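This part of the workshop introduces the protein records we will be handling. The question running through the whole workshop is how a given chain folds. To make this concrete, we reproduce a full record directly below:
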Amino acid sequence: MQQTLLATLLVSTNAVVPVEELILELWGMTPPAKVGNALQAQISRLRRNLASVEPERSESRVRTSISGYCLAIDRLELDALSFADTVEMIRLRVRSGDSRSRDLRADIQDLRDALEQWRGPVFGGLTGGRLCQDAGIGFLEARNAALALLYELELDSGGHVRILPELTMAHLRHPSHEQFCILLMRALYLAERQIDALNVYRRFRGHLMETLGIDPSPALRALERAILTHDPALRSGSLAGGNLSAHLPI
């Protein structure tokens, strides 16, 4: 329960989490009798635990407000926020075109360093309540977006052969993730594996129809046509992903 409480306060960094939300997060729909006292006991225990690992701090990180509690923490102290800041910095450089005038390998290395901060499942595998679960989904989406940006930059720098193994694994782990499919098709085509690239498309199309009942997006269908016709734009990087900023989330 202490882990869930800490995780809930962490994902709401520096923002007050109302008492009602904390109760729901910790006990769900079956809170104990005198739940207010039970929550206060958990908060007090968390304060003691944090104080034991930071004895030099004069003030507890866990702050009390009229409506609830918050955790005081600097962005640089939380790896999830540090990761997000690094990725956003690189994304802005890509959107502005700055990456074109500098060594792409620097951005690639920065992204890989940021992704190295992922050392296991979100919250160490802790399920938590709604707040933790929603945050966990958001963190995983952010990681996938960072991976997609990394693979875009790798392709843009001519690293299609180098990234094929990890890009293939990303596609297999996320069979409904269209951007990974697009990137894998491009990498295979650039590696002179046109048939494999088309097979990836056909399997992805079948997966979408079977699981969701939908067709691939116009962008993915356009990429298939370009591969079939050996469109020169695929090698120049001006089609289906060459314009990096067009594929970055807002």
